[in-house]
Structures are given as C-alpha cells and as structure tokens.
User: Fold ATP binding cassette subfamily G member 5 from Oryctolagus cuniculus.
Amino acid sequence: MSEFPRETPRGSSALQVNGSSQGCLEEVPAATPGSRHSLGVFHVSYSVSNHVGPWWDITSRQQRWNRQILKDVSLYVESGQILCILGSSGKRGGGVLGVSRKGSEHRVIFFFFLRFTYLGHRSNGHPSWALRLLQVEAVMAELSLSHVADTLIGSYSFGGISSGERRRVSIAAQLIQDPKVMLFDEPTTGLDCMTANQIVVLLAELARRDRIVILTIHQPRSELFQLFDKIAILTYGELVFCGTPTEMLDFFDSCGYPCPEHSNPFDFYMDLTSVDTQSKEREIETYRRVQQIECAYKESAIHHRTLENIKQTKHLKTLPMIPFKTKDRLGALSKLGVLLRRVTRNLLRNKQAVTMRLVQNLIMGLFVIFYLLRVQNEVLKGAIQDRVGLLYQFVGATPYTGMLNALNLFPVLRAVSDQESQDGLYQKWQMLLAYVLHALPFSIVATLVFSSVSYWTLGLYPGVARFGYFSAALLAPHLIGEFLTLVLLGFIQNPNIVNSVVALLCIAGVLVGSGFLRNIEEMPIPFKIFSYFTFQKYCCEILVVNEFYGLNFTCGGPNGSMMAHPMCTFTQGIQFIEKTCPGATTRFTKNFLVLYAFIPVLVILGIVVFKIRDYIISR
Assistant:
C-alpha cells in the first residue's frame, strides 16, 4: 500500500472509492463554534469488478471477476478521536480508505512541496505570503521537521532524511490544509518499532486537536493499544468489531475469548478473527468462529449504540452535501508559477542530471569533430558527402538527446503529480507545463554550447547569421524529441517502451523526411505524404539551404580547375539544393514556421493527454 497519507481537503468527507457501493456516508459539521463534528458510515457495502485479461486478449477480456471489499460496514467516529482499522493483509478490504495501490515511484520528493501545498490552499482572509510561510514553519516545528527544512528528502536508495522524518513530511503536507478528517493507509509500514510508535503517537496528538484520524495498521505493538479511541477489525471486508479498547476487552471476554495476561491484544484478537486457509477443515472451522463473533457484535449494545448515533446525525437539519474537493483555490497561473519554481529548484539540486542535460549534445558533437576534424570544399575529398553526413547525424541525434532528458527526469515528477493531483492540489497537466517551461532555458543553453563548438570547429559556412540559423534549426528537434516523449509518458507507464517508440519514430522520420537517403520527389506517394508530417523534412531543408547556399566547390585539377569526373556534377551549393530539395530556398522562412509549430502542437497534445490521464486516474 502507499506509504504516503491521504486526506481530503477542508470541508470534505474522507471516503473516496471506485466501484459499486451501497450505503451512505454522513459528516456532521460543527453547527456552532466549539461544537464537534463526526463521521458516520452506515451499512456500506462495496465491491470491485474488472476484466480478467488484457485488452488485446478478446476471449479473456469478455470475462470479469468480482470481489467484495466491504460488506455491511457501519462506523461512527467523532472529532478528537483516532480510529485504528485492523485486519490480515489482503483481508482488510483494500478500498476501505480509498487509497490507490500504485507501484511506488516516489523516489525523490522534495521539501518545497510543503510551501506549495500551503500557497495553493484556500484561505478566506487571503493572508500575505509571509503569513503563509509562517504557518508552514509552525507545522514544521509541530512535527519536529525544522532541523531538516533545507535538506533533500531523498529516498531509500540514496541520501536524504530518515524514514521517520520522511513519513512526517508526508503528514505535514496534508496537515498544512488543516483537514477535519485525515486518512492514513499503513503509515507505519517499513519503519522500525520506535519510529512507528512515534508516528502513531503523533497521529493521536493530531486527533486530539479536534480532528478525526482514521488509519489502517499492520501488527501494532501492545503499547499502542490504549492510544486508540476506537479499534475496528475487518475480516474479508466484514466488520467483526468496532469500539473502544475497554469495550473490545469486555466484548471478547463475554464471547468466551479473554485476552491472556501479558499478551498483545492486537495479536491475540487478530489471530482470533482470522481465517486459516491451510486446510479446508481449518478454513471452515475458523470462518464459523469469525461468523459467530460477528453475529455477537451486531447484537451487542456497542453496535446498536453506533447505529443510533448515525441515525441521529441523519435527522440534523444542518447536514450539508459533502464536497469532496475544495473549490476556492489559487488560480491555474499561480499554481503553475509555484510548480515551476519547485521543479526548477529541485532539478537544479541534481548536479549530474543538470550536467548531462547541458553537455550531452556537446559530447555527441565532439565525436563528430574528432572523426571529421574539418570539412573541405574539394568534392573529390568528400566536401558534399561530409556535409550531408554531418547534417544527417545532427538531425538524427538531437531529438534522441531530448528524449533522454525526459526519460531521466519526468517519470519521477509524473509519479509525484499522480499522487498530489489526487489530493486536489493541482492538475497533472500543470506539472507537465511546469516541466516544459523549465526545460526551455536548459535546452537553449545546451544547443548554443553544442553549436558554438561544432559549427566553428568543423568549418561550416562562415557567418554569424548562418550560425544563428543553424542553432535555431537544431534547437527545435531537440525540444520536439523531449516533448514527444512527454506526450507518450502521459499514456504509456513504462519508460522503456516510450524509449523504443520515440526512437522508432525518429528513425522513420529522418529516413523518410530528410531526403538524404532518397529524394522525396522520387518516393512512393504514401511516403511522400508521410514526409510532410515529419519535423525532420523541414529541419533538413533549413540546414541544407543554410550550409550549401552560396557555397562553391572545387573538383580536382591543377589550381582547382574542373575535371570531367562523375563526382564533379555539383560545383555550386545551389545545384545540390535544387537536386535534393527543389524550391527549398524559397521556403526557408516557411520551413522555420512549420518546424517550430510542432512544439506548441506537442505541448497542447500533452496537456490533453494528461487531462485524460487525470480523469482516468480520478475514476
């Protein structure tokens, strides 16, 4: 299960489930200052249904499996109370807290998130930023995080703060929004005993401050027994017991199962209410025992008192509709600004990633420089062939280096945005756009560094203007490769698959669109049509015109005179231009406009894809 706590924003109830459900959820607001609010779950049943096989397997896709997650569950919790939900792994009901079980990709989470959380939080009085930051500092102090305020959180694989501090940061990020109901799915998992106890004590203290805290927990220590105001036990989605620790001891004692002295009540009652599936006989025997305990609980005064409390709340005239998300938030531009600062600051901390982003194009250019050293004007010595090879290499490599940037940096941000967008902090497309804006200056600097070294060292057409056109023409495919990767990462989860898809698309584009391997005019009509949808076509035409226009070649002979040689067909650059891409000199400006039009198109497409991703995950 997720290691990060989940909560619903202020004014929200806490249960968010997908699938089919029956029953109702009631939240009673504080009618007057100082009055309490409560959360009631009344006869809730919940089941999930899914297709058996993958989408491409038509036979198995038509079959569905169904699983009962919750069955006739009723709970009642008031503010100031902490409710612990117990159950064997896989038998507690995975949807009970509405927490998605996603693969953990939260490798690097940064402390700047706390400030973003609060700056994006609804505030009736609209306090100043200084006041908001003071509130952040207060929460940090409350959770003993001030001493790591400027420390990279890191991950289990490298550096950063401790696991307990990392867990407290995730709690603080939710606490900033001052929620009335907080839900935690196994917040102590993966922590040592002492740290786990500290986390539970912290959650109990949070509950005492007029909040409702609900958590699931796995194998709690006996010292925590009296910390919980209520304890619920679920077995196969059925509620076996829910009440105070004292009521739990008395109830099981009345059922003939007193807790032995010096035993952990949690372990004893968990074993008592678990179904043993090692053999058919034991499964029937233990399940019958669980059913007897459940029936005894539903007939007990504890259960009837819970139902009575819930029924009383349903008759209150002040009961409002339950808003699951706070609507009054900062605008999209304000969130985008905070995200942009956050993404830029966090990625600047990754020195290796920044260095590779800036020099990877240069490294590729150095290989070409060491191989060719300097182009010549002698046709028989490869004047044309070397230039064509250079342009082909540059157009083919720059999109790939852009793709590497996105694959290295964005999947972690995508995982973070998947988590935080479910908390209602922002939408996924805003994280995408923040990454796009952050990437622009890095890409411009990286391209200028690469072009400055490669262009003048290789001896391409002299002239500052020609150098500017060369740099601008190669900046576009670098950005297009990165943004195309972002689009694919919106609906393909595995970065390795995205790597393969982008590589194949770029190879196909440069083969068909460049015109270097085969003249576009001589291609079959389908390939000719396809070439107009490749950015490589427009980029190559720009580079060919930029390099060959006004260039004169020599072709052997004394004093550079012409010789009757098959390779001496082209003695002027304009001849090569008209042969390779006829009319390209008249389309120079148009090609630039079309080439750079790919960038906003991909950004818009990425926003649409991530909006769809947001919708699908929220469902």
Observations:
- Residues 36-121+179-195+205-327 form a domain with the Rossmann fold fold (CATH 3.40.50).
- The mean pLDDT is 81.
- Strands lie at 6-7, 20-28, 38-51, 64-78, 82-86, 181-185, 212-216, 230-235, 238-243.
- The first helix runs from residue 58 to 61.
